[in-house]
């Protein structure tokens, strides 16, 4: 990645986007960071004065897209990371009570903004005969039903579908497109985890903990770099295995809830406790 130029949209918020910027800078990349908050951009630029250039832009607006277009026109961008998106507590609700304006706002933020920035960057790459890679950030739940999050789930699922189509259509032009879908991570704005003692994570996540934003950023860097040069149209889940667990498997021990044989349930629970307890490992050599 050294010597290349990347654009990170939504990279100044202190979470996954900023972690992506940090890893890119450490890899020798010049980074354009688009964010709607000038103060956050100034802090990031002061931290990396030689490697980061800020672009004040709200990419859910035409003016914001135009600002990104102008910035990319003046820089040899060959990598794009789209981090913009999210849902507020006020937007969580039942499908029957979903407001049309809330639906449009979620689609604009979580789908359309990424489509437009990908389009802008890809057009400049093609015009300059430059190959490159695009990575859109999604969420691991997007491939499942998302009750109470109808608009958000629909937008993120559509973003993954769009990315697959982009991969096929842009592949002959030398441009790869992938998604990284994060699970439950310790993010200062989304999931700080301050109210959790870790018990729920140990019960529901196979790796037993929340992820770090740097772990998500590492997956992004892999897909942008030459290490991922033959990977396109994929969605890499960084979720500690959370979405692999089906709802009818019990928490932590993963014993199927509908396993009706009580002797079998007792045996499986005993095995789990033996393997995960504090005693000696049964597979230690004598």
Describe the structure.
With 286 residues, the protein is of the alpha/beta class. It has 8 helices and 9 strands. The chain has helices at residues 16-26, 38-47, 62-73, 100-127, 150-170, 199-204, 213-224, 262-276; strands at 5-9, 30-35, 52-56, 77-82, 132-139, 175-182, 185-186, 211-212, 235-238. A 7-stranded parallel beta sheet has the order 3-2-1-4-5-6-9, sandwiched between helices. Strand 5, helix 5 (150-170) and strand 6 (175-182) form a beta-alpha-beta unit. Helix 1 packs across helix 7 (213-224) and helix 4 packs parallel to helix 5 (150-170). The longest helix is centred in the middle third of the chain and has 28 residues, at 100-127. The radius of gyration is 21 Å and the shape is globular.
Strand order of the largest sheet: 3-2-1-4-5-6-9
> What is the helix fraction of residues, given as a range?
40-55%
Largest sheet: 7 strands, parallel
Poorly predicted tracts of residues: none
What oligomerization state is this entry in? single chain
By secondary-structure content and strand pairing, the structural class works out as: alpha/beta
Cα distance spanning the termini: 49 Å
Alpha carbon gyration radius: 21 Å
As a percent range, the share of strand residues is 15-25%
Question: Strand tally, please?
Answer: 9
* Total helical segments: 8
What is the global morphology? globular
Order of helices and strands: EHEHEHEHEHEEHEHEH
What number is the mean pLDDT? 91
